[in-house]
User: Which sequence fits this backbone?
């Protein structure tokens, strides 16, 4: 065990955990904003109760998202000081812009929203949740621009022994960033959508507050369906992008060893990295990999053997997460399409409701797999092609990192379990009775 | 010039962070002494409920700006203070969570758990930020490669600890005044008499700190070179006197501005003394992190300045609005709403 490995584990623990809560914040704020807008426009008190009920869950989740985000910002300095010093000119400024433009707005107006039910006009109250929703998605945009720069660095020059910014617009508008933003935001909205749909399904099944949850379901199903379909379409754009920007990641996620034209895709392969081949290849679909990566049946796709061994990512961690993510994305379209057709007869569709309540964890698995592919697929680079992860760790003692890693695991586990318990408790209890909601 | 502008902004951001989060951290640390029952505790939570989160973003911004404007300082400072900083972060986690979790289950043991978290999570950052900044003022043992040659205990030297005690006192007085603003009745009386009791201790520690700074640091060199700068520590003293004067007159908003002035000037007193260093090395001044050897490129500094000039005034605007909007006192009837 060295400080490098422990720091990587620590960052992995901290980001995976953080990203369990962030997508709910991103999506649920938007769903609540939509509910409250319907309330303001129609005057239907049910939608106000909806905003309040989902808001309660939102706030529990938001608290955990916030506190686990702060530790991430500081970990670049504590654990990755060489990285921070080398690329801070670009990466650091993106984080600072994120805080200045988004975090303030988000954190200030969530308090206005939570404490302002009786002090603000309904319209102003609704504006405050929209500001929260916009600010949280905006913060995601900035951090994803920063992440995209690590995946595909642009707009910089190596000067004074470090990477210095030369073209800010290029950093902010590069295709890699735009696609990543669309991809991750949609994923977050789908996740939050399934979260709402699942809780609705649970309560409708148990005939608790049935009408309330059917109404909530109808709001969420449209929202989720749109993004689930969009995500499939958008996901296809990444194949070609990776061919130009991260050929090793593309090859690893397809477990593609030999550079070939007219490359086929296999439904299932078992990678054998030691012998640089696949030990099993089943379900050959001719030309498909070339088609997806190059938009031509005969296009050439580089294989892993073209790259030095020490510049290849872990194939297993790219190949399987990719397959799981894509399969789940397909399932999400299926489930939301079915849900849309059943939206007016939910009570007579117990089987569908049962599936939906158990579907809550699936988008969490999909996003986790997606990040696993994105981040391990970039290895051994911390900034693709520019700086290796092994060169970026702080000169800190193993004992220091070991202590904090244990601290993170213990604290985050307790936090996660408690948050999960509390959210489940609120979700089971259902909304406040009608008489109370006027307060 | 650009570097100096960012140096000033860097200092101001930390100062504003201490001013804002200072009162909610200080109040959290004082809770076991000020609160006699559950209603008192609920009032204390509610008195900072709408503000603490927005306050803490100033920390994220101060950290982010250190990263953006002086990446090498950010790298060396944060990795050098690894354990102390991680302890602060863990503490800030457990002090934030109670605000959302405490009222979710109606059970005294449950509440007790979160109250303990709030108290520890408020006290530790107050203390450790003081220890950290006093050590920054003093300089830490970083070598030619920016590698820290000490341990967590290196930071716990007398001057560092004095800084910790100073911060705890500054924040608790600030917090007690805040609670005096936000409450009436017995809790209000306890809070204001706490501010009065703590004030003389704060005064003594502040004076000792100013004197010790002369022995333990080189901060005064800049002041001797440019005596006009003595205005800054003078403002800290003025703020301190204002605090006591207005607490005595039961003008608590004015007292709060007094303690805010003290905290901001005290922070800037150190920062101005550091210039042009952000993190001096105690081994050799040539190893120090300064605005010359750790700043970002002019392009980045310019872009960031543009962002700051547009957004920081906006933030100050809407955060001020929130403070005005929720300026009402927190009473028992008020609590029933939440």
Assistant:
């Amino acid at each position: 065990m060295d400080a490098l490995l422990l720091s990587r584990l620590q960052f992995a623990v901290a980001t995976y955990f953080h990203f369990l809560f962030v997508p709910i914040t991103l999506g649920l704020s938007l769903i609540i904003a939509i509910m409250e807008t319907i309330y303001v426009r129609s005057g239907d008190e049910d939608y106000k109760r909806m905003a309040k009920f989902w808001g309660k869950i939102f706030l529990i989740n938001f608290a955990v998202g916030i506190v686990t985000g702060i530790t991430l910002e500081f970990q670049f300095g504590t654990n990755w000081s060489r990285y921070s010093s080398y690329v801070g000119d670009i990466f650091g400024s993106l984080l600072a812009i994120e805080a200045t433009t988004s975090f303030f707005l988000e954190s200030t107006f969530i308090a206005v929203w939570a404490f302002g039910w009786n002090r603000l006009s309904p319209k102003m109250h609704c504006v405050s949740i929209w500001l929260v929703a916009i600010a949280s998605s905006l913060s995601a945009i900035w951090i994803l621009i920063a992440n995209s720069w690590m995946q595909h660095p642009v707009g910089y020059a190596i000067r004074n022994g470090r990477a210095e910014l030369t073209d800010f617009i290029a950093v902010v508008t590069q295709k890699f960033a735009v696609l990543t933003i669309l991809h991750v935001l949609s994923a977050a909205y789908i996740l939050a959508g399934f979260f709402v749909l699942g809780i609705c399904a649970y309560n409708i099944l148990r005939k608790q507050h049935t009408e309330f949850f059917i109404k909530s379901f109808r709001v969420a199903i449209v929202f989720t369906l749109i993004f689930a379909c969009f995500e499939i379409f958008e996901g296809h754009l990444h194949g070609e992008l990776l061919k130009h920007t991260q050929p090793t990641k593309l090859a690893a996620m397809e477990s593609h060893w030999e550079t070939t034209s007219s490359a086929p895709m296999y439904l299932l392969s078992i990678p054998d990295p030691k012998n640089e081949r696949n030990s099993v290849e089943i379900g050959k679909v001719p030309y498909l990999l070339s088609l997806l990566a190059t938009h031509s049946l005969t296009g050439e796709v580089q294989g892993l053997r073209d790259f030095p061994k020490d510049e290849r990512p872990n194939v297993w961690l790219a190949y399987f997460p990719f397959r799981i993510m894509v399969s789940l994305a397909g399932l999400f379209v299926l489930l939301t399409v079915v849900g849309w057709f059943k939206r007016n007869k939910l009570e007579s569709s117990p089987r569908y409701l049962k599936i939906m309540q158990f579907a809550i964890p699936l988008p969490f698995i999909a996003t986790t797999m997606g990040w696993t592919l994105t981040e391990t697929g970039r290895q051994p680079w911390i900034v693709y092609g520019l700086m290796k992860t092994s060169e970026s760790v702080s000169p800190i003692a193993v004992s220091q990192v070991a202590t904090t890693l244990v601290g993170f695991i213990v604290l985050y586990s307790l936090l996660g379990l408690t948050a999960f318990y509390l959210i489940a408790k609120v979700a089971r209890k259902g909304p406040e009775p009608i008489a109370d909601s006027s307060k | 010039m650009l570097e100096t502008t960012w140096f000033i902004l860097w200092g101001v951001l930390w100062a504003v962070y201490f001013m804002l989060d200072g009162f909610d951290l200080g109040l959290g640390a004082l809770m076991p002494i000020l609160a006699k029952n559950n209603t008192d505790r609920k009032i204390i939570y509610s008195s900072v409920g709408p503000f603490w989160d927005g306050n803490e973003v100033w920390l994220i911004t101060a950290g982010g700006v250190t990263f953006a404007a002086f990446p090498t300082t950010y790298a060396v400072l944060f990795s050098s203070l690894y354990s102390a900083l991680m302890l602060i972060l863990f503490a800030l986690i457990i002090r934030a969570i109670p605000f959302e979790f405490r009222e979710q289950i109606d059970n005294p043991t449950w509440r007790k758990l979160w109250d303990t978290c709030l108290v520890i999570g408020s006290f530790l950052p107050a203390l450790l930020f003081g220890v950290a900044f006093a050590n920054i003022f003093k300089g830490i043992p970083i070598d030619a490669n920016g590698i820290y040659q000490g341990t967590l205990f290196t930071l716990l030297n007398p001057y560092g600890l004095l800084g910790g005690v100073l911060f705890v006192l500054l924040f608790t007085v600030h917090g007690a005044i805040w609670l005096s603003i936000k409450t009436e009745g017995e809790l209000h009386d306890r809070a204001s008499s706490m501010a009065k009791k703590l004030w003389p201790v704060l005064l003594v520690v502040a004076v000792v700190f100013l004197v010790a700074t002369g022995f333990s640091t080189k901060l005064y060199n800049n002041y001797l070179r440019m005596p006009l700068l003595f205005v800054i520590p003078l403002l800290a003293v003025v703020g301190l006197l204002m605090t006591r004067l207005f607490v005595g007159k039961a003008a608590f908003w004015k007292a709060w501005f007094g303690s805010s002035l003290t905290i901001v000037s005290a922070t800037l007193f150190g920062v101005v003394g550091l210039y042009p260093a952000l993190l001096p090395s105690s081994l050799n001044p040539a190893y120090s992190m300064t605005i010359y050897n750790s700043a970002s490129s002019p392009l980045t500094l310019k872009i960031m300045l543009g962002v700051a000039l547009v957004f920081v005034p906006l933030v100050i605007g809407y955060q001020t609005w929130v403070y005005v909007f929720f300026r009402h006192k927190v009473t028992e009837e008020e609590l029933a709403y939440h």
The first strand of chain B starts at residue 277 and ends at 279.
